[in-house]
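<amino_acid_chain>
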Amino acid sequence: MIVATHRKGKQMAIELSSGRVFVVQLGMTGSLALESEPPRRGIETRHRHVRWDIEPPQPLPTARPATESRRRPSRGATSAQLVFRDPRRFGGIVAYRSMETLRDAWSLLGPDALTIEAPVLADRLRGSTRPVKAALLDQSTLAGVGNIYADESLHAARIHPLAAAGALEPAAVGRLAIEVRRILGHAVERGGSTLRDYRDAFGRPGDAVQVHRVYGRAGQPCLTCGATLLGTLLQARATVFCPICQDLSTFQNHKPTRSGRRVSTR
């Protein structure tokens, strides 16, 4: 029996009455879906790696078209399967003996990004010479920020992604903490960013992609100032920023191109 769910950063824990805990990490394309009956066709029939039979305490909401309100699901069946899908296999499931052992594992993660405050973020970044975007993506520094929302948060905070994390002024760290909370919170409300096939537990795509201001838009106009957005690679991750809204002073050893490829200037 499932007695509780927990979350830290990108990881969700399912606590069972036996005391065991399953931790689910979705990665880039993973999802958990509640299904009142197995799908007969389409992408939902593929990459179904784990299935649990469950009996919900109340009727399940059924899937709805993307145009319907996220707040008014209809009522459906009283039994279902909980299915873990992961087309690109970047996610996974890990079992722990108890919540105590899970807490030990989670102690290695940084503070949760949804509630990060400026003094805590400043402490996590202090002394670091690596690019601030690399620090944001490091889950031991800050738990819960991925590539999309790192780009979005840095743009909103007017911080260049290659700026040295430990050299940020207090005002910049304050802006960054505010924007990380705001952008992640807004993305949660909109069900996340469905770039291709992501669906939530009730089969609904997220629509946060509709409000992305920089991610995936290299070569297009900045929605704030109109300048052409530039792209580069940082730790093999596509990174997009505005040369006007975000400071370029730390961009020293290579310059971006509109295609997002890195070109050395040495």
Q: What stands out?
A: Residues 55 and 79 are 5 Å apart (CA to CA). Confidence is low (pLDDT under 50) at residues 63-77, 205-209, 251-266.
